[in-house]
Amino acid sequence: MGTRAVGKKVAKVDVIDKVLGKAIFAPDYYLDDMLYIKAFRAPHPHALIKEVDISKAEELAGVELIVTAKELAELNNFGLIIKDQEILAREKTRSMGDAIALIAATSEEVARRAERLIEVAYEELEVIEEPLRAMEDDAPLIHQGGNILCSHNLKKGDIKQGFAEADLILTNEFRTQRIEQLPLQTEAGVAEYDPETEVYTIWAATQWLHDTQIDVAHALGVSPSKINIVQPIIGGAFGKREDVSVQIHLALMAKLTGKKVKQVYTRAESMIAQSKRHPMIIRIKSGVTYAGKITAWEVEVIGDTGAYASSGPAVVHQALYHSTGPYNIDNIAGKSYTVYTNNTYSGAMRGFGATQAAFAYESQIDILAKEIGMDPVEFRLKNGYQRGSITPNGQELTSSVGLKETIEQAVEASNYQQIKVERGNKKRGVGIASIMFGNGYGEGYPDHSTCQIKVEDDGTLTIKTAAADVGQGVLTLVAQIISEVLNYPIEGMNFLQGNTATMKNAGSTSATRQTLFTGNATKNAAENMLAQIHHHAFLELGAHYPSLEIKDGKIIVKGEDRGLTFGKLARLAKAKGQPLIAEGSYFPKTDVPDKETGFSAKNYLAYTFNTQIAEVVVDTETGQVEVERIVAAVDIGKAIHPQNIEGQSEGGTAMGLGMALMEDQIIEKGITKNPNLSNYLVPTSLDMPEIETIIVESKDAVGPYGAKGIGEPAMIPTAPAIINAIEDAIGVRIKELPATPEKILKAVKSKE
Amino acid sequence: MGTRAVGKKVAKVDVIDKVLGKAIFAPDYYLDDMLYIKAFRAPHPHALIKEVDISKAEELAGVELIVTAKELAELNNFGLIIKDQEILAREKTRSMGDAIALIAATSEEVARRAERLIEVAYEELEVIEEPLRAMEDDAPLIHQGGNILCSHNLKKGDIKQGFAEADLILTNEFRTQRIEQLPLQTEAGVAEYDPETEVYTIWAATQWLHDTQIDVAHALGVSPSKINIVQPIIGGAFGKREDVSVQIHLALMAKLTGKKVKQVYTRAESMIAQSKRHPMIIRIKSGVTYAGKITAWEVEVIGDTGAYASSGPAVVHQALYHSTGPYNIDNIAGKSYTVYTNNTYSGAMRGFGATQAAFAYESQIDILAKEIGMDPVEFRLKNGYQRGSITPNGQELTSSVGLKETIEQAVEASNYQQIKVERGNKKRGVGIASIMFGNGYGEGYPDHSTCQIKVEDDGTLTIKTAAADVGQGVLTLVAQIISEVLNYPIEGMNFLQGNTATMKNAGSTSATRQTLFTGNATKNAAENMLAQIHHHAFLELGAHYPSLEIKDGKIIVKGEDRGLTFGKLARLAKAKGQPLIAEGSYFPKTDVPDKETGFSAKNYLAYTFNTQIAEVVVDTETGQVEVERIVAAVDIGKAIHPQNIEGQSEGGTAMGLGMALMEDQIIEKGITKNPNLSNYLVPTSLDMPEIETIIVESKDAVGPYGAKGIGEPAMIPTAPAIINAIEDAIGVRIKELPATPEKILKAVKSKE
């Protein structure tokens, strides 16, 4: 039985527990004598806190402790990139849902009742709803230092010359909405504090154990070695679990009450108090020749990061860096602004700015193609990247550029030609969108991952990786790579629960980076383990390594009976003081972009390409859009797990469809109007079209076995493909998402 | 002070000791109470041993012990690929220089006198000089099992169809000579045996510590754990130190005498009793169109491996696999034979078969170009590999194919055009040759390397690598990579002396593999060390890794005073039971070629390209060739150490010039006629032309930082470039190397 698993559709390592209901998510944790924690949250988005009265609440039976900022003079701020979030609001609120008090009670019911007994006197301030208002000189400051948090630039070639060469110049403004990541499991956790060791242990899902560890440590003013973050099974993430949620509150209350504590967010709390996808305003001015060459591309991106920075500075400039699409353009000028408002803060969400950008550039590309009378496919193929292309950041793409293959194969698998020809039914349309997505943080951020493998005395493998499996399957990827290198069955591997006490940093499960980072770290660990096994077998068996064969947990002399099990080898090696433990890391370098131009010779390690073709039918009476079919052709270098690629592609497409047609967290004057799943609409299985995923494997990407990531790029082309298909069907161009029936009807009418 | 050293011309880590005379080579070892070992060697290449009389020699004062095969009934054979070499010849000799007896004496002088007192009675057998004779049915067998040791095949496309498409078909036979690798230091070593532990310790230079370890262990019938091979400073190698030489004899005599022992080969002994470059007969039949397309390529390679296999099977089939050069040819048929004769055995030498093949194919390419009236440069550019080309083994070259750049840049830097135009002086000529060379063993051989880095309590680094530095600079490469990853000065690194007792396998210093293998293993080790350092610093400094900066043996918080030295970190980590030790391996996979066709989708991990242009003046009165200038353009992906690349290029070119014009170990009836440096001519500094090396860096090779190896490809194009230049100068084509003045004069006369 061969066991090398790379390229095979093996069962996910966590699937059995999930299917049998044995998987323990954070809300499933029950510790003895737990207290339940509840935050009292501000109803006013921007207000001075004049007085907080907790006396009535304190009197409630079952309430053990209530604290406000007043009681906690020493607290530090927290936050992903900038420490601009208060653990408890002290002087003013900056957005609806800011925590003002923490309640510890013997039951969740008591805590909720106590919450209603807290009384706060506010002095309301002007609420900044719009980033354009926030950028005005006379706008009130939300934080010290100005409402424009940061801005970034992009410069390539000569933009004036580019416009001078154009036959046609078109400018459009596109707007994207505020979206909730909507992991099914809301924020939750339990915690305990050991006064002996002064160590806090917190069980709460996170996309990045070590970042949560240090954010909590900073907030509490202790060494990170005093914080242990333990990873439960994660009930979805999509960017929302990059920010700290319950962790600091839990740690604080565990110490103050001296008891174990638990906190579970309601859906409304999750929607109002945790991050969103950034709404963006993206203006693109493009120059093009009638022959179909794009000569100039000028872009402005304004991102509404809400009341707090979170990942905002990175999200918005990533939108800028991805705002030209996968097209060869010599002359580029761009600028982005990350702006504070009094809205619920924006942070990371699948695609991380590149999703918003893709809606804009793929709409613009379609508009340009139509204006010069060229087929959108031909226009994309004419301008699309190939090996040797230079990105807007000046990076030469020397390997793994499968864009054209994704376009060609998507067109072939779709009804593109047929729908274009059968122009009889005006309501049917087909749209295409192609995107690229840089894997990993790139940009000189010193990112890395580490994985450790141990052979136990019984020959099983124990694997330590802090990489968060948010459902995308990174642990299965790790298992497959180890299986491939050591020709060892996945069944014999035991994954330790993620924690910061015994594991090293694996970086975040975000930025579509785990395939590259933890994949390569794992391959390095496994190859070192293979070398260690060969070393000891060489000495024990007296056979040189080309004569040795490794299979199913044994190493044998080829063509002979002689061999050793992994277990025997582990015991022998341990007896020599050399236990079979191998650790591998991956610590690549990228280049920090130039501040003036964004130039970075190695901006990202690899780029994933995805072309989607959407086939839609639009009902011009109701404005309803039915997406009939989506073909997605993804260039992921090498499919380590083809079925997982398909799963990511389908899940991503569902999110993209929600973005295109329905999802919208509506905030008016800072107040979320639809913090629930009855008014916040997401696609259900009935909304989903048939999805066909085609895997393109372009060569020589730097990931393990030439793989690239798929997590985020899976969703990015969907919205523009659908919007382009709507335009194809009924001739109206939606430039502001989502394309609700109301918006479509309005557009149809104004066209008539 | 920045210390990242990749791409810089840093001092070699071993250069100071070498320059100051402090480097200890094997002949420099003196142990207390040593005995001196001398082998009595057969004068007859093929003879039955009827009687050995050691009695007179034993009586000599100072002789401690003499042994023959008779006294050592239990000895096993040894040998690199096939165990066909006897430690002491028992029944017959197979080549001149086979050892028949071993003498241990109190001085080398006594041992030599004893050697002359040994008397052996032989019955002489037919001596097979030529492989073509060896292949005949009635030839006497040198070993059981036939004189054809093995044969290999190469098949691609349809060779008949290829010839049918040709406008012109040409067949030529090329012959290469027997060459001595000629490391300046002859084989030597010391050994001791510990009866307590039963461990043999042998100090003797080798290109591959662990292979020598197991070859000696097998020969002595003990576990490899009982053999410790220690690496002295190596006085050159060039392939000659792949085979065992003194090691087994020393181990044996150390045990039998109970004393420390030493053995140093004379130059004649080294030339007669150790490996040579395989003489080869290479027949090429090519089809070409008048438009310059090569349509078919049929090749036969016959390699004379002498009396023993050594690396012969691999050398000869590597010649076959490289016999079509770096050219796109759809239809290929090839066959190779590795053949025993009674000559001194052939083994590994720089280029390992590919050198001989290149002389043949680059001569044939020039002949074809001339016949169809096309400039040789144009012909090569027209047919040369580019990204996407398919090798004769069926491997698609998806990355790092800089062949055309090497041709173009070599032409530009040379006087190629000028000499071609100035046709006035008929005696001046210019010749070009382009080659490719697969890095590493490839072909599915499970090759790997390992490197270990430790941070000591004082902050210095101790590095353990078993990679043999034969002067090419692999230890400097290791130091540069560690310096690059850890931003650490090379001065703070301490390389432990290579040995098998404490180090894991790094594979051989051969096959141009160490840059890829030990380079990548080192990078993996260093990146893991970087992760460990960040991990401990994160906990100690309470700072997240993007806020940390590593430099000159310290890790500091950016913009702050706080930091830790490596030494402090090492002590802290050790106190936690986690000493700062990182081990990295590189264990890539290649594909075993199909037996019938040689097909292998991943035959080698990377290919180095080298184009040389030789400018010569030929004296038609004396036949003397003066090489005036050689331009070498090498595509090595990325120059980790540009000066070392130049050094390898110049050294390789010197060897290639020797092969082209003078070197020739002449064996008649099995007897070497010139086992000395007065009759065996090699180039001196006066023979050397000006050499200009141009570094081409093609992208995305799999080595560290995109590097490829240079060791062997440095020499491969030189001989054909010179021979092509001679033809260009005086119109005679030398098809049998070396092109001595006699041969040139004879060719000139026969042309007249």
TrEMBL record, chains A, B:
Superkingdom per UniProt: Bacteria
Molecular function in Gene Ontology: iron ion binding; oxidoreductase activity
Domain annotation Aldehyde oxidase/xanthine dehydrogenase a/b hammerhead: ranges: 20-126
SUPFAM superfamilies with a match to the protein in the record: CO dehydrogenase molybdoprotein N-domain-like, Molybdenum cofactor-binding domain
Signal peptide: none
One Pfam family hit: Ald_Xan_dh_C
UniProt cross-references to InterPro entries, sorted A to Z: Ald_Oxase/Xan_DH_a/b (IPR000674), Ald_Oxase/Xan_DH_a/b_sf (IPR036856), Ald_Oxase/xanthine_DH-like (IPR016208), AldOxase/xan_DH_MoCoBD1 (IPR008274), AldOxase/xan_DH_MoCoBD2 (IPR046867), AldOxase/xan_DH_Mopterin-bd_sf (IPR037165)
SMART domains the UniProt entry points to: Ald_Xan_dh_C
PANTHER family: XANTHINE DEHYDROGENASE (PTHR11908), XANTHINE DEHYDROGENASE SUBUNIT D-RELATED (PTHR11908:SF157)
Descriptive protein name: CO or xanthine dehydrogenase, Mo-binding subunit
Taxon lineage: Bacteria, Bacillati, Bacillota, Clostridia, Halanaerobiales
